[in-house]
Amino acid sequence: MNEKRLRKAAQLLRMAQHVIALTGAGISVDSGIPAFRGAQGLWDRYDPAEYAHISSFTANPGKVWGMLKELYQIMEKAQPNPAHYALARLEELGILKALVTQNVDGLHQKAGSRRVIEFHGNGETLICLSCGKEYPVKEMALETLPPLCPSCQGVLKPQVVFFGEPIPPQALEEAFREADECDVMLVVGTSAQVYPAADLPRRVAWSGGSII
Question: Are 190 and 200 in contact, with CB atoms under 8 Å apart?
Fold first, then answer.
């Protein structure tokens, strides 16, 4: 972003009444977490049709957990980068009212953001597909894949949204409500082309808001 655009963005933020942010995988690349799409993205090595669809998980959870374990090992070491801290600071200053993220790495919370709407869930919790019990991933050994529920031996799945699964209704409702109130949206680390997340900046633009 050149200096002229930076000045324009700063002016919009100063004048705005309700600023929200939409973030995607790109914001966490500098924290060591690979993006899913693009050069050297996760989907270059793992076909999303085989590893990211809920039908693939239910058909062969051990195979999908091979990818998930690798991703968990990366996320365990990851720390927030300046972009995460900048958004947390904007919230602290009262400028940023809410942050909608497509990420499941929890780095916004680690950076200090409190008003976080997790569009695709959070990887810190596993849920049993048989009995519904939930477990912190840190308490579960990922040596035997897939990990199994200690209570019923059902398959454990991260509390994240796979392709073919709906966005959590509460997150969807909150995100759309924030977008409808928003007059300036910061879009960071995402192309915002995948629905329904792509609807958020469009809703802001349709109501006369600005996108940065």
Answer: no
